[in-house]
Amino acid sequence: MLFFTQCFGAVLDLIHLRFQHYKAKRVFSAAGQLVCVVNPTHSLKYAATRCAAAQASTEQGIPPPCHHHEAVHDPQLVPCTCPLFSCPWEGHLEVVVSHLRQTHRISILQGAEIVFLATDMHLPAPTDWIIMHSCLGHQFLLVLRKQEKYEGHPQFFATMMLIGTPSQANNFTYRLELNRNQRRLKWEATPRSILECVDSVISDGDCLVLNTSLAQLFSDNGSLAIGIAITTSKVHSSEAEM
Amino acid sequence: MLFFTQCFGAVLDLIHLRFQHYKAKRVFSAAGQLVCVVNPTHSLKYAATRCAAAQASTEQGIPPPCHHHEAVHDPQLVPCTCPLFSCPWEGHLEVVVSHLRQTHRISILQGAEIVFLATDMHLPAPTDWIIMHSCLGHQFLLVLRKQEKYEGHPQFFATMMLIGTPSQANNFTYRLELNRNQRRLKWEATPRSILECVDSVISDGDCLVLNTSLAQLFSDNGSLAIGIAITTSKVHSSEAEM
């Protein structure tokens, strides 16, 4: 009996996912684009840091500055870059992806253009929606974060980081696109390297920023579909322009 | 002597404007686009309303709801829609443009694609940058507003309104584009009718919204260049989709 109940539950879940997938495809109307349903994760990093530090700045939901390991003896080792957990792991850049997949259960998707469908946008801040994206021979980390920079006014921040060095990141351009209700919002930028801190990128506001009202206009039944595309940059000597 | 000093001042102003024009052209690198330097105006409407009402909501820089005239006897008459002043004028929709030009000195520009160069972005909120834009046989009002929705955190809001009816507005799409420092932000939407209230469009956040940090990334030496394009909508039966 229990077995049949579980089977029925699994079938219902599959129908729900299929329905969300269909909705996202309809929104973007781009045949061949992979739609990925991403469930929210309540960040444990902030919670742990808050308990430990209990600083005034973190009271308002502002994440603390990056806690890079104090003494990394081998300069080729990098700390764990997972935005969700304070993790003591460190290793070579080449094995960061497998660490994120295996230890932190972050999914990875293939394809130059995908649709990231974040569910349950109504959940209280701080909340993260995270996937890895593999294309053009590299892996990228996409982070959508709901956060209260100003108390009582949650905002959504979306950015893409290359799991690679800053000089490798300069070779790419990423685009995030929202499209619904006769409105379209596009953000294009060079991805940051995962060696920089995702928290500081978001607190600097150097990413796609959405107020709650705009997020509601772009979301459909509590889910926000973000079209993602990654291309190689035309201008490689980016530092000269900066 | 005074004459020569004035002449020298005028020449300096011209050189400064020419320099800003050149910079904006360089940013957008689109030959043939008209660059319009728009100086800020400190809105007198908010100041007057604040003095009169002194309500808690306006203390934080939130503009009051639209003050449409309480009794418009002729339904074909519309009140003055200037976002800057509380003006007792009312008249037919066809003469709103000439009223805005003559009484409120708002400039008008021709061309399907123009660059709106807002100067002195550092000025304190509330501040407005306003022009009218004539293209495709209609006139549009572009409003860029610096406002503190959250006390101590000014934001920039940009929107375009058609000087016409809501059903006429549904025939158009406007695009605002920021492009600098290897970042690009595009907002596309159907313009609202000037018969709706620009204050409520901005307080709803249904427009291009920029945090101060993003505005700084996109601005050059205190000026923000916004590329503007207006096209006729592909989908005319917009209400069906809504």
TrEMBL record, chains A, B:
UniProt-listed Pfam families: Sina_TRAF, Sina_ZnF
A GO cellular-component term linked to this record: cytoplasm
Record's keyword annotation contains Lyase: no
Keywords, comma-separated and alphabetical: Metal-binding, Ubl conjugation pathway, Zinc, Zinc-finger
Gene Ontology annotations of biological process type: proteasome-mediated ubiquitin-dependent protein catabolic process; protein ubiquitination
GO molecular function, one term: zinc ion binding
Ranges where the Seven-in-absentia protein TRAF-like domain occurs: 134-228
Substrates-to-products reaction catalysed: S-ubiquitinyl-[E2 ubiquitin-conjugating enzyme]-L-cysteine + [acceptor protein]-L-lysine = [E2 ubiquitin-conjugating enzyme]-L-cysteine + N(6)-ubiquitinyl-[acceptor protein]-L-lysine
InterPro entries the record matches: 7-in-absentia-prot_TRAF-dom, SINA-like_animal, TRAF-like
Keyword set includes DNA damage: no
Pathway: Protein modification; protein ubiquitination
Superkingdom per UniProt: Eukaryota
EC id: 2.3.2.27
Enzyme class: transferase
Written domain comment of the UniProt record: The RING-type zinc finger domain is essential for ubiquitin ligase activity.
Function: E3 ubiquitin-protein ligase that mediates ubiquitination and subsequent proteasomal degradation of target proteins. E3 ubiquitin ligases accept ubiquitin from an E2 ubiquitin-conjugating enzyme in the form of a thioester and then directly transfers the ubiquitin to targeted substrates.
Family: Belongs to the SINA (Seven in absentia) family.
Protein's recorded name: E3 ubiquitin-protein ligase
Lineage start: Eukaryota, Metazoa, Chordata, Craniata, Vertebrata
